[in-house]
Amino acid sequence: MNSPEQPLPTFDEVLLCTPHTTAEQVGLFLRRCLIPCNEGKKIYTMLYADELSYDVSCRAEELFQHLQHYNSTYRLVILCNCEREHSYIPSAFSQYKVHMIPQRPLPEIQRYLQHHYRVTRPSSSAASVFKDHMCVGIVSSKRAGVGK
User: Fold this and answer.
1) I need a surface site. Which of 14, 18, 90, 113 has the fewest CB within 10 A?
2) Where would one find the signal peptide in this protein (predicted)?
């Protein structure tokens, strides 16, 4: 948010981890992050890395230890649920741990995201169904089963 005109991360910069994420998927992601290339400006992010299975986590740590020697300028962020801080990945990378609390007020964060998710030309776009021609939207309800 310090550089509002910079684009949001692209699909190759983010890995959304689940218990079903494979070692191959994590390996490809880590290779993109840790093998030097001419870009060098991307920030790679693993979301919910604490949900990886034990076997996948072990292989990911081994690959990270092996590949980090090839690139000292990598930029990798691993986000985990603080309630699962004792799972494998948070424990293995605990020396790099930083507790984060959003530092910006919610309205400012919302404006930033609106800037990036607004469709500039909404003609015949699915974004026309969302408020203010946004290309993403969240539909929620406090009651279950109300058709949302």
Assistant:
1) 18
2) none
Query: Is residue 72 a contact partner of residue 35, using CB atoms and an 8 Å limit?
Result: no
Q: What pTM did the predictor assign?
A: 0.72
List the domain boundaries for the chain: 1-103, 104-147
Element (H, E) at 16: strand 14-16
| Cα separation, 108 vs 95, whole angstroms | 31
The token pair that represents 127 in the structure block? 């974004």
Distances, alpha carbon 35 to alpha carbons 11, 56, 59, 71, 118, in Å: 18, 20, 17, 6, 33
Both structure tokens of 116: 């990036």
- One-letter amino acid identity for 90? P
Mean pLDDT of the chain: 83
